[in-house]
Q: What sequence folds into this?
């Protein structure tokens, strides 16, 4: 019989207030957005573009809508379309879970493009700041996945394996913690250090490229240890949907980095007149 670490018994619901429940998962989204907003305000002090700190506060609303709408629609389209075709109203039941990072990313990209166009802000310098802040939310979101006992890993006999409450009796990889470490903590530190380098900061798009490629590589790697979604299973050659969705991020990330390095540009010191 293989050894397994006991899964910590943490109630996914932090507080019950009458018919309402405050869940760790919801708090992770709120905290990630708030901390990201604060961190972007700090980064704006050294941004090569004229980005007002008030702009970041206003963008918070746009980012929230992009994350929620994009994340939910992404999950519906990428992971469980047949279910929602049969029951379209279930799309609105966000409290039952079902959010996609890749969908949320696309939602934030659309929200950012619309926002910078309305405000006359340069897209790439602003995107670089968002990229630096994004791992904060990723880290907290994966910790919430762990608390919920969802998105667990494949069966293993490693000494740090855990038996998850909804994963059967076999010990499994705590893949949520792998993702929290790589997609969250490691990527945050790398981007933070890069932002401090003037050469990188003034080549708009490079930090965004590192984020895209870094997340893609981290997600593809962890997917080898993560149990694929039951309604999808394994795909061609034993790959997973998460790997297929992350592969284009690596490609686009490398292209962003290559373009930024070969096209050094002076970022405008003033914003476009509105």
A:
């Amino acid at each position: 019989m293989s050894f397994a670490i006991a899964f910590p018994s943490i109630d996914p619901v932090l507080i019950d207030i009458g018919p309402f429940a405050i869940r760790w998962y919801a708090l992770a989204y709120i905290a990630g957005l708030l901390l990201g907003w604060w961190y972007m305000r700090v980064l704006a002090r050294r941004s090569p573009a004229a980005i007002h700190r008030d702009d970041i506060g206003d963008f918070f609303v746009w980012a929230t809508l992009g994350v929620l709408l994009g994340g939910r629609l992404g999950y519906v389209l990428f992971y469980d379309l047949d279910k929602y075709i049969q029951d379209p109203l279930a799309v609105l039941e966000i409290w039952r879970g079902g959010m996609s990072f890749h969908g949320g990313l696309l939602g934030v990209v659309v929200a950012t493009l619309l926002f910078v166009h309305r405000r006359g802000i340069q897209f790439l310098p602003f995107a670089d700041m968002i990229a630096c802040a994004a791992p904060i939310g990723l880290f907290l979101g994966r910790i919430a996945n762990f608390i919920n006992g969802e998105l667990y890993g494949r069966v293993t006999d490693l000494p740090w394996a855990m038996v998850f409450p909804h994963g059967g009796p076999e010990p499994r990889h705590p893949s949520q913690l792998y993702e929290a470490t790589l997609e969250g903590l490691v990527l945050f530190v790398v981007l933070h250090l890069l932002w401090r380098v003037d050469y990188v900061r003034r080549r708009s798009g490079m930090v965004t490229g590192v984020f895209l490629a870094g997340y893609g590589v981290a997600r593809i790697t962890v997917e080898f240890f993560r149990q694929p979604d039951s309604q999808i299973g394994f795909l061609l050659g034993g790959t997973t949907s998460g790997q297929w969705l992350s592969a284009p991020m690596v490609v686009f990330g490398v292209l962003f980095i290559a373009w930024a390095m070969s096209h050094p540009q002076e970022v405008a010191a003033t914003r476009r007149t509105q």
Notes: The chain has a mean pLDDT of 88. The chain has one domain: 22-262.
